[in-house]
Amino acid sequence: MATFEWIIALLLGAALLAALARRVGAPYPTFLALGGMLLAFVPASPNWTLDPQLALTLFVAPVLLDAAYDTSLRDLRANWRPVAGLVIAAVGTTVLAVAFTARWLVPGMPWPVAIALGAIVAPPDAAAATAVMRQVKLPHKLLKILEGESLLNDASALLVYRLAIMAMMGGHLGFGSFAPVFLLTVFGSLAAGVGGAYVLRPLTAGLRDVPIALIVQFALTFGVWIAAEAIGLSGILTLVAYAMTVARGIGPRMPARMRVPVFAVWEAVVFVLNAFAFVLIGMQLRPIWTRLAASGAQADALVTATVVLGVTILARFAWVMTYQAMKRRRTLASGDAARPRPTVGGGIVLSWAGMRGIVTLAAAFAIPETLPDGTPFPYRDLILLCAFAVVLGTLVLQGLTMAPLIRAMGLTDDDPVGREIRLGRTHAYNALLEAIKDDDTLSAKLLRKEYGAVVELNTSQTQDAPVDEVPGGPLRRRAIAVARQRAFELRRDDVIGDDAYRVLVQELDWAELSAGGGRAND
User: Fold this and answer.
1) Which of 41, 386, 493, 502 lies at 20 to 30 Å from 263 by C-alpha?
2) Which residue has the higher pLDDT, 74 or 461?
3) CATH 3.30.450.20 fits 2-371+379-414, yes or no
4) Quick one: DSSP state of residue 375?
5) C-alpha distances out from residue 395 to 27, 64, 210, Å
6) CA dist 463 → 433, 450, 489 (Å)
7) Distances (CA, A) of 305 to 121, 149, 238, 292, 386
8) What phi-psi label fits residue 414: left (phi over 0), alpha (psi between -120 and 50 degrees) or beta?
9) Per-range mean pLDDT, top range of 10-24, 32-46, 65-79
10) Are 39 and 283 in contact (CB under 8 A)?
């Protein structure tokens, strides 16, 4: 019973911290990290443990699928150079810089362990950064670069991490054995993900019951990851390819009554996984601190963790600013005045957006506790401490200063998504009007008036209304609120029963969503 009570208390605490973060305009992982750290010093807190082999599967797989499902292939193709630079060069720079620093600070640390540490702290969690950037309207291109990076840098960093752990667990891993493993992992994982999406599509195509569809989706998410890892492929790359293929193929086949609750459940699951990742790592800090104190290595461990945090931040700055300077030079040399030139402000914001999160925590937690011969994995406690320090430091230092920095750099968004929404809405509703133009019923006439107003609103020159607003949206929402209150009164007075009340409220809820009531600030 005590475990259940702690779970309820921790979930409630995470929700309150997230609400506070939203109120102050900070990414909620920042406050979760602070809560996880404080939990380590609560004397009565539980001492839960998790199988290291389960950590990456449990925490990363659903989060990764959720991000991959929403990723735009068009934006990835348009920004492939900067995204590739961040995914490969920036991650590689961070891995090497942290590995050399760790070896310098701890000379006894084996190279595979040092490289594993570098790979653990290398991938930024851009979800935290984009949560802030959407509030301050960062330029669309920078936002898409960060989202593309957040999807793919986990794969590159954790591939290095996996090879480093393999080398530590199985002995020397030379280039002759590294290259085949690398090529098989990358190309085999991509092929398996795409192929798996097509093979499994019939299993999900006919599902129209939300609970069943959600259970199947979660089962397939974990199943794809576990199957890929079981045959020696990369669970991350396989799942990314699988999710992007599924997202492109599902098209209009999913009805609205499924799409809304399914997306809401996935959003809630991602939040819960983030919360418990910080909680579980926070619980490990107290025994780690106790063991370091027993060995007299507390001071050295704190120095190492602090230096690793600084090197992690500076390595990203070094690559991004160097890349931006080279790109500006090429743009000037081309003589094309119309070609957009990278700005110093954009480079600084992109560099500062390197907040770490759930992937770093899960990878650190996934390090085996022992080597094959039964001896403890070397420096595992130090790696966990460094990982949490990097996550906490970047989320607090960068997360709380990201919005002021963006404003100080004077970066603004020219709203290309808004223009595309209006264009798409115009074409879609014109097609709708064309489909009912020959229908002379009263319902068709009302629909033509309503959707004709939508087309007119989105093709007019004065577009002051929000992009997700519909004609008469505020008026509709006020009227629907009155109707919902009246439905409540009818049930309260026993004029209608609960079953009729639920059907009526559901109709009003859908009407409210269609009137723009789904915005987060409503």
Assistant:
1) 502
2) 74
3) no
4) P
5) 8, 19, 35
6) 22, 18, 39
7) 11, 25, 32, 13, 4
8) alpha
9) 10-24
10) yes
